Amino acid sequence: MPEKPRARTSTPSKGAHARDTSGHGRKAVTQVGPEKAARTACDWLQSFIIHRIESVCAVRHTEDGWCVAVDVLEVPRIPDTTSLLATYEVELDESGQPAEYRRVCRYHRGSANH
Questions:
Q1: Is it the case that residue 13 has pLDDT exceeding 80?
Q2: What is the pTM of this model?
Q3: Which H or E run contains 56?
Q4: Which one, 24, 43, 69, 77, has the greatest CB density within 10 A?
């Protein structure tokens, strides 16, 4: 059976950001990309709210780190299209540590615009 090629560990993963931390022109690479930011934001938000997380609807890199928008089921109803959802934004710093969250809107699942 042929051996699988090994992943290269010397190059940063896609989405990683480099910054100069030494003052000598060399750049240290942080390993916080959009996937890790989204996962961290969901885990952290879930520790504060009792509602079920539905999905991540946006991940945006900012000057200070990451902003992750998370959709949450706040009031389940029957039929499901009348359930009340909310979008929360979770801010993470450059190192991927959560800094704050806020609810930015509420909407019915079946609504065309929110």
A1: no
A2: 0.71
A3: strand 52-61
A4: 69
